[in-house]
Write the structure tokens for this entry.
Amino acid sequence: MIKNYKQFNESLRNKMTSKSEEDILKAIEKDGAEEVLLTAIRDDDRWLFDFALENGADLNKEMYKGRTYGNLALGDASIYGRYQMSKTLIEKGVKVTLGIRNSLVEHTYGPGGKRMLTLLDKHLDSNESLRDQMKGKSEEDIIKSLEGLSDEQKIIEIIYNQLPFDLLPPGDLVIDGDVGFIDSIDILPDNLTVNGVLDCTSSDLTKLPNNLKVYGDFFCAYNKLTELPDDLIVTGDFYCHDNPLPLDIEKPPGVQGEFINKIIKTKH
């Protein structure tokens, strides 16, 4: 289970204040070089950024299916206007996804943002997605591609690639652990339970499914939601800012953590 995004807290920042290599190495040993890297990006600390990369920050390490630390690092670096950090991450192989690019568009103010957008557009990943590869294939071919997968894997792949939901296994749709459908989906199936973090940031959801249960944090910013279902259950925090939701929308009764629905704007 990954840590909540609140992991970038004052305690970690306080450890970084002195820039003592000994203190920072202790933080890397405890929290991981990847988390120190993300803190460096948010605090605009180039020295710490380079130090984390030199001391084992793995940009390809999965936070959960569909998102790596490199994805989050580049997304943060671009939004916060860290041009040279973004350039370094791209040079080290982090792919510029459409989700990262579209998130920046929401936060582009002035020349700095335009310069960053030019950088991302230059390196935008144009590889065919599995979803695109599936277009035009027969249902028989699609079913064959799912053979040998567990029910949980089938659920994830069918949702991630937006295959017909009648291919979903019968019974309860349960995903145990954190999962991300970043920049990839238009719809989620009804009666889905996620025992962990669910991240659907920067997708094209226009509505949430019936009977969705998330036993962890739910990230659903930068979608096209205009309403929220009354039966939604989220035991952690629910991030739904930057959606065309009514300004006076109330927190759904099943959301136990914080309800973050205000539009976030970051000036560069």
Summary: Residues 150-260 form one domain. The first helix runs from residue 10 to 16. The chain has a mean pLDDT of 81. The chain is about 35% helix and 10% strand.
